[in-house]
Amino acid sequence: MLLEVLLVLGTLLIYFLFSKKKEETLPFKDGWWGRGQKPLTKEDSSIRPFKVETTEEELSDLFRRLDQARFTEPLENSCFHYGTNSVHLRKIVSYWKNQFNWKKQVEILNKYPQFKTKIQGLDIHFVHVKPPRLPEGRAAKPLLMVHGWPGSFYEFYKIIPLLTDPASHGLGDEHIFEVICPSIPGYGFSEAPHKKDFNSVSAASVFYELMLRLGFDEFYTQGGDWGWLICTNLAQIAPNHVKGLHLNMVSSSKLGLTHLLSVLLGRYFPGLFGFQDEDVRRMFPFLKKGLYRILSESGYAHIQATKPDTAGCALNDSPVGLAAYILEKFSSWTDIEFQNLEDGGLERKFSLDDLLTNIMIYWVSGCIVSSMRFYKENLQKGIGTQKHEKLTVQVPTGIASFPNEILHTPQAWAKKKYTNIVSFHFMPRGGHFAAFEEPELLAKDILQFVDKVEKEQLWKKKGE
């Protein structure tokens, strides 16, 4: 009898020691998003140079629409509490018509090499910037950077030189990057999907194919907004290829009893829930900084996740309406307190030229409707129902937590999803559009994260 008991206990011990649960990966989504049926012939995988170009007819049409805009008088002393204030909007439209030089901005857009290539039936646009110089015997590290809504690849134009040529900007030369900034399908100059259900996993699969096509078997990824989710999904799909995941926004739909208790009691017992002082400052009182803020700032998401084509139709027809819709986000998502200002604080972090360039990318490409559809494709089945939401992320993860992000996610929550957080920093300033607002702060955080991953050899392929 004793021998039998010992055998059973020994078997159980061996089982628990050696039967480590298999780390599940997210399946690659091999779709066809082009028009009609997928052709029987092999897809053209060539990479073609691309330049932004606009015709005089397109510009004449834009100016005609700007001239014919109708404005609604705002409520007295409303500032930006009701959205973009039309008094300030008039000033922006006047600048747009009389001072903004789109042709000059096109030259700026075209200063970095751009390309297009067919993937899963779609023409994918991307910026690809190689280092201007490399120390002898050194190789650049590939870095995929993904934007969100209502941003574009242009958000990264100020951070690109800090990463591809860090030594010239006082950031050292230990880590030099080769930067790839694609436009999400349906955004900017990437072709919009022609079929339903193109979600973040679809985009991650497309960008994974893009990186492999460019010859990158191992690479880093970085993103915020939708870029956060796309890069997260890419790390779940290809953990043997993504060396590190850096995020300037993070969220998790895996919320349980502990999260609820931390919301109710975390202000009074922060240590019990793993909160730091800065977490408490950013999160509480939770009704004001959490629940009410989400309710007041998420109306757009409900529209776009249900009937994007209805609102999008109007925005695609009116450049002034498009500007009002996008600029409001660049005000409140940069700093919620900017809604108390008559000008929305828009020029405190951005120039009008930069803001209008981003808007023009949406206007000349006619992509506002397809960009809004991305919300429906990702949210129509409900939050917490998708496989990627139930899977963790094992690759080394770095998080730059900016103080003016709409909703703060503490590391104690983030680590439930991202099980290998090697760097989590409270950034001193900045909001949602980190690369656009604070390129140097973000670049420094990316550099220190990659330095940690490389020096401490935190990433290894499974099986090695």
Radius of gyration: 23 Å
Oligomer: single chain
Characterize the overall form: globular
Mean pLDDT: 92
Structural class: alpha/beta
Count of runs of 4 or more consecutive helical residues = 20
In whole angstroms, the N-to-C terminal distance is: 42 Å
Report the sheet-strand fraction.
5-15%
Largest sheet: 9 strands, mixed
Low-pLDDT residue intervals, each spanning 5 or more residues:
1-21
What is the N-to-C order of secondary-structure elements (H for helix, E for strand)?
HEHHHEEEHEHEHEHHHHHHHHHHEHEHH
Question: Order of strands across the biggest sheet?
Answer: 1-2-3-5-4-6-7-8-9
Number of strands: 9
Task: Report helical residue fraction.
Answer: 40-55%
Concise structural overview:
The protein is of the alpha/beta class. The protein contains 20 helices and nine strands. It is globular and about 60 Å long.
Topology:
Elements lengths: L1 H17 L28 E4 L5 H12 L18 H13 L3 H8 L4 E6 L2 E8 L11 E6 L13 H5 L12 E6 L17 H14 L5 E5 L2 H12 L4 E6 L9 H9 L11 H7 L2 H12 L1 H8 L1 H10 L1 H14 L13 H4 L2 H14 L2 H12 L7 H4 L6 E5 L9 H7 L3 E6 L7 H4 L1 H17 L9
Parallel strand pairs: 4-5, 4-6, 6-7, 7-8, 8-9
Antiparallel strand pairs: 1-2, 2-3, 3-5
Helix pairs in contact: 6-7, 11-12, 11-16, 12-13, 12-16, 13-15
Descriptive report:
The chain is α/β, with parallel strands linked by helices. It is built from 20 helices and 9 strands. The chain has helices spanning 2-18, 56-67, 86-98, 102-109, 160-164, 200-213, 226-237, 257-265, 277-283, 286-297, 299-306, 308-317, 319-332, 346-349, 352-365, 368-379, 387-390, 411-417, 434-437, 439-455, and strands spanning 47-50, 114-119, 122-129, 141-146, 177-182, 219-223, 242-247, 397-401, 421-426. A 9-stranded mixed sheet has the order 1-2-3-5-4-6-7-8-9, with helices on both faces. Strand 4, helix 5 (160-164) and strand 5 (177-182) form a beta-alpha-beta unit. The longest helix is centred in the first third of the chain and has 17 residues, at 2-18.
